Amino acid sequence: MSEKITSKEVREKHAKHLFPAVANFYEEPAVLVEGHGTKLTDLDGNDYLDFFGGILTVSLGHSNEEINDAVIAQIQRLTHVSTLYPTVPIVELAERLTAATPGKLEKAFFTASGTEADETAVMMAQVFTGNSELVALRHGYSGRSLLAQSLTAHNTYRAVPSQIAAIKHGLAPYCYRCPMKLEYPSCGVACAKDLDELIQTTTTGKIAGMLVEPIQGVGGFVTPPKEYFQIAQEIIAKYGGVFIADEVQTGFGRTGKMWGIEQYGVEPDMMTMAKGIANGFPLGAIVTTAPIADSLKKGSISTFGGNPVSCTAGNKVLEIIERDDLCGNAEAMGAVLREGLEALQKKYPKIIGDVRGMGLMQALELVKNEEAGDRTPNPEATKALFEQTKKRGLLIGKGGLWGNTIRIAPALNIGEDEIREGLKILGESFAAMETA
Ligand SMILES: Cc1ncc(COP(=O)(O)O)c(C=O)c1O
Predict the structure, then answer these.
(1) What is the pTM assigned to this prediction?
(2) 98, burial (CB in 10 Å: exposed 0-12, middle 13-18, buried 19+)
(3) Is residue 2 part of a domain?
(4) In a domain, 340, yes or no
(5) pLDDT in tens, 372-394
(6) Structure confidence at residue 160 (pLDDT)
(7) Surface-to-core class of residue 372, CB atoms within 10 Å of its CB (0-12 exposed, 13-18 middle, 19+ buried)
(8) CB 127, CB 295: distance < 8 Å
(9) DSSP state of 3
(10) Same domain? 227 vs 289
């Protein structure tokens, strides 16, 4: 990289040489050049508090020294041999992951991304059950391959018509915008029960499984009611399917427990993971039962999957999460964050329609006028909040089908002072929007 390059030149090169689909945040995207802990610095010397962690990925902070030391030592020893040879980091990570996941999940397969992990899980469900049809949910996101786009029910990320006809999308457990126009809890979680009819009416009646996020990430941190997954899992099992929890966003302590699905008291047959697994190094995984893993009789190679450098980072991540009780910190700091966001909602009841999430995975859904009962999505307000928070040195995320949901997911080892600093900036930014 040229030391002399300016941020304007970087933005120009980005526009010229990358696909326009690789969209950046902000009117004038920040060119980030350095990060330490929860802080990032751009090429112009501006500092930011990071409340999005590279999309819920840098969960232990930027340039984490312990991870860096382990990775540098591994790079100097061995960077790649492929899965044709066992390596120390891959077996250690498989051992750790299978110990950290619920009891019956005892075999791991590594990939280089979350998309591939979801692809692998679907293939395994089909191989194991002999069935081909899959259930996913509206507003869900599974990645960018053709199968993952077909699982995804969010037209922002579907470039071509669904290539996999055997995927049926159930109603999202999106209480703020209930697809059945009901209220929880008097609804009796009707959206979960509707999966039965979905399977009876749109499939052969024999399904391979259901792949679902415990909290829909890209969908805007849509958080299902507590009974949802128990009801769903029972229905899926009744029709011969396996239950796959996509923990790409919710895994590794994000919600205040190691796995998002644990919040619902459900043990899946498979879990897919990526993002927070290796603090930013490319790695994905699926963990499943021995019978499911053993059902694959063909070979399956992932050249980069389980790379020793990424696995070394993954080993350190798990060691630190457990050693420093980062699930506990995510729960405690998540409570501080949530309280602050709810206080903001009280102060700005017109625009902040909903506050939702768990642990350090919290969202604000912005609408036209909640007070007047107008829940029309307000992506213009999201854009304005982005500019105001950036100006004040805070990076946040967004999501939701209409791009009107603010996603907040700082590092799991964040302290209370930084949570309060971020909340203060959010408050000042909403105030500035009101007077603008
Ligand atoms: C829940 C979920 N699954 C799968 C993926 C795909 O992961 P990747 O971008 O690593 O391919 C994502 C990415 O955002 C995700 O949020």
Answers:
(1) 0.97
(2) middle
(3) no
(4) no
(5) 999 999 999 999 999 999 999 99
(6) 86
(7) exposed
(8) yes
(9) T
(10) yes
pLDDT tens digits, residue range 223-277?
A: 999 999 999 999 999 999 999 999 999 999 999 999 999 999 999 999 999 999 9
Q: Are 128 and 246 members of one domain?
A: yes
Our answer on whether the CB atom of 221 is closer than 6 Å to any ligand 1 atom is no
User: Domain range spanning residue 267?
Assistant: 66-323
Pocket test for ligand 1, best of 59, 111, 120, 141 (most atoms within 8 A of CB): 141
Tell whether ligand 1 has an atom less than 6 A from the beta carbon of residue 217. Answer: yes
274 lines ligand 1 (CB under 6 A): yes
Q: Do 143 and 232 have their domain in common?
A: yes
Cα(272) to ligand 1 centroid in Å equals: 10
Encoded tokens for 245: 């929890």
- Is the CB of 305 within 6 Å of ligand 1? no
The answer to whether the Cα torsion of 383, 386, 390, 391 is positive or negative is positive
What integer pLDDT is reported at residue 299 of this predicted model? 93
Atom from ligand 1 closest to the CA of residue 145: 11
Structure tokens at 360: 């350090």
> Which of 122, 142, 283 is the pocket-test mutation for ligand 1 (most atoms within 8 Å of CB)?
142
**How far is Cα 252 from Cα 273, in angstroms, rounded to an integer?**
9
